[in-house]
Design goal:
The chain has 292 residues and is mostly beta strands. The chain has 3 helices and 21 strands. It is 9% helix and 49% strand. It is globular and about 55 Å long.
């Protein structure tokens, strides 16, 4: 009984030490109640969509401090950080400087020992409706937009209805697209206001992707899309030589990225052998352009 008592004290002391030391982390041991899903629903925390398998949520205290909770491969970590000097953007780090969280124009980056381990963007809440999906997106300003996707008529065509807060636009935008596979919110043009990006993909073996952008400009919403691929761009030696769909879109360091496999002559749809290619898009004057 005495041994159990002292063992309990040691466990409590160890946990207290881990969670209150700058740069510390708290592992999610077997039996912990914290799960990956719960990290994205923590009260007062903002969830992010991250690369390399990370799940991250953060919370500002308004006084220069930041709490960061993340999950990777089943392990839960928590950092308490303070704002630090930065040439641009907002930079937070633990007391020992080992862990760094950096935000710049809506891009979020997480560093360990000066090495960038993942990139993140603001997450989007997704819920199910009887006719399709409902996406709820919140801007930094607190304004929101709801995107209702109706694919009850056809699995290959989505009817979209975008309802912005009245502070942005009183109009409801409607359009038909391929099914939505991702919704992103990021400041691509660097003006301090995020753009809403809807990523779509065609149904079938090709998975040809596209991006529909919605820019807030002068109290109205301006729609823009990435340019269509031309025949010249598909020709041998051109920018999209070997392209056959299977696109993946994401945002990194303020640029919209397009990644796709390269097919060589004789490749089957399931086995491209030419590696992968990345195309970068910028947004200028409400127009997407390929960065050359």
């Amino acid at each position: 009984m005495v041994m159990r008592y002292f063992a309990g004290i040691l466990v409590v002391m160890a946990l207290f030490s881990c969670t209150n030391r700058g740069g510390s982390s708290k592992d999610n041991e077997k039996g912990s109640k914290t799960t990956k899903e719960e990290i994205t629903q923590l009260d007062g925390y903002t969830p992010l969509a991250c690369s390399n398998g990370y799940t991250i949520s953060y919370k500002y205290d308004g006084k220069g401090a930041l709490s960061l909770v993340l999950e990777k491969d089943g392990k839960i970590l928590k950092h308490e950080m303070m704002v630090s000097r930065s040439g641009s953007g907002a930079r937070y780090e633990t007391k020992d400087g080992k862990f760094v969280f950096w935000e710049h124009h809506g891009d979020f980056s997480y560093f360990v020992n000066d090495k960038k381990v993942c990139s993140c963007v603001q997450s989007v809440k997704k819920s199910k409706l009887s006719t399709g999906n409902l996406y709820t997106v919140e801007y930094k300003s607190g304004d929101r937009v709801e995107i209702e996707e109706d694919n009850s008529f056809s699995a290959s065509i989505s009817s979209l209805s975008l309802k912005f807060d009245d502070a942005i636009s009183a109009d409801t935008l409607k359009l038909e697209t391929d099914p939505v596979v991702d919704v992103l919110l990021n400041d691509i043009d660097g003006n301090g206001v995020e753009e809403l990006l809807l990523v779509t993909s065609s149904v079938g073996s090709g998975g040809y992707g596209s991006v529909y952008g919605f820019v807030l400009s002068d109290n109205k919403v301006v729609q823009c899309s990435i340019p269509e691929i031309t025949k010249e761009q598909l020709s041998k030696g051109a920018l999209f030589d070997g392209y056959m769909g299977h696109d993946r879109f994401y945002v990194e360091e303020g640029k919209l990225m397009r990644e796709f496999p390269i097919y060589k002559e004789g490749d089957s749809n399931a086995h491209p052998t030419g590696g992968k290619k990345n195309i970068q898009y910028t947004l200028t004057n409400n127009r997407f352009e390929i960065l050359k």
